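Bench notes, afternoon.
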Amino acid sequence: MNIDAVHEEELKACNVVDIKEGVTSDNVAKLLGVSNITARRYLNELESENKIKQHGERGRNVFYTLV
C-alpha cells in the first residue's frame, strides 16, 4: 500500500475549508470514524510530511491548518 496515497485520502476525507480554518484531532476522529489517538497519529504524520501545520502546543488549544 502506498502510504502517501493513504495520507492523501485522509486529507480528502476532511473538508478542505475546515482544514484551512483549522481542525482538531476530535474533528478528524469524528470525520474518519477513528479514535482520537489514531486521529492524532494521522495528524502527526501529515505534519511530519509538511502537509499541515500544528498551532498550539498541547491540549484544547491545538489545531491544524494546511501548509
